[in-house]
Design goal:
By secondary structure, this protein is α/β, with parallel strands linked by helices. It has ten helices and 13 strands. One of its GO terms (cellular component) is membrane.
């Protein structure tokens, strides 16, 4: 994949390696027993990743934040929350700064080198979004040579070669790729015609188009199946089992589907219990 990047987003590029840690987890990552002994667990959530996590009127809300409130009732210890930008969130879990990445982190082969993931919490198949009424893009082949926006350090960036393969089948090519520190920045540039399309998960794009139907329009899938989940440091098996127990309970009592319908306008009853990514 050949990509060129905008200088104005150099900060995102510098931070990108932190978002997908390549190192194994440090000994400082707390086990479930250690968390119980100290009396609290620290979870990290994103500051602006609608509809999973965001801040409204000064309060955290979204799918994951509502689950977090349920987790606080389920856990036999205090659950503290740190709301931070995406870049650095997963690295913070790998090194033990945070115990859990309570965010919709897409499961990838690279991330599984330093993290373990819970059961998937939603569908994260990648789609493109374009400006409403942009007739220059009516199908995937029309993306050839056009400027793409994507979040720095994201799994979506790592799977752009799938889109590149689709384009090559029709004699096309992947155009310039601009990385952003957050998706709201990418959407703003899309609206201002600084990029031609943005790649994100179907849930995030649906939320965007629902919020701004006169500005944006959903395109087509540009990846195979993909799933997001919460993450803990590699081999932190007891903590992972604790979180999966909670997720299983929420699914069994109908709460999971209820929140999915509330925030995604659909539920995902057939999510796999575990997922081994191809990419």
């Amino acid at each position: 994949m050949t990509s060129s990047f905008s200088r104005r987003h150099a900060l995102g590029l510098l931070a990108a390696p932190l978002a997908v840690p390549l190192f194994s987890h440090a000994a400082s990552a707390a086990t479930l027993e250690e968390i119980k002994k100290r009396g609290y667990m620290i979870v990290a959530t994103e500051d602006d990743f609608r509809p999973f996590e965001f801040v409204k009127d000064g309060k955290p809300t979204g799918f994951d934040n509502e689950l977090l409130e349920d987790l606080r009732k389920f856990a036999p210890f205090q659950v503290k929350q740190e709301i931070i930008p995406w870049t650095g969130l997963l690295a913070g879990v790998s090194t033990g700064k945070y115990d859990v990445a309570l965010t919709a982190a897409i499961i990838t082969k690279e991330r599984k080198k330093s993290l373990d993931f819970t059961s998937p919490i939603a569908d994260a198949t990648h789609y493109y979004v374009k400006r409403k009424g942009d007739t220059s893009i009516t199908s995937i082949k029309d993306l050839s040579g056009k400027t793409c926006g994507v979040q720095a350090g994201s799994a979506l960036l790592g799977r752009l070669p799938e889109l590149e393969t689709m384009l090559k089948k029709d004699g096309g090519k992947l155009g310039k790729v601009v990385e952003y520190t957050s998706y709201p920045e990418a959407y703003q540039d899309l609206a201002l015609k600084r990029v031609d399309y943005v790649v994100n998960t179907i849930i995030n794009i649906k939320a965007l188009v629902t919020e701004k139907p006169t500005v944006f329009e959903i395109g087509q899938a540009v990846s195979g199946k993909s799933y997001p989940a919460w993450a803990v440091a590699k081999d932190n098996k007891e903590l992972l089992a604790f979180l999966n127990e909670f997720i299983g309970k929420e699914k069994a009592n109908g709460r999971f589907a209820e929140l999915q319908k509330k925030w995604f306008n659909e539920s995902f009853p057939d999510l796999p219990v575990t997922f081994e990514p191809e990419f």
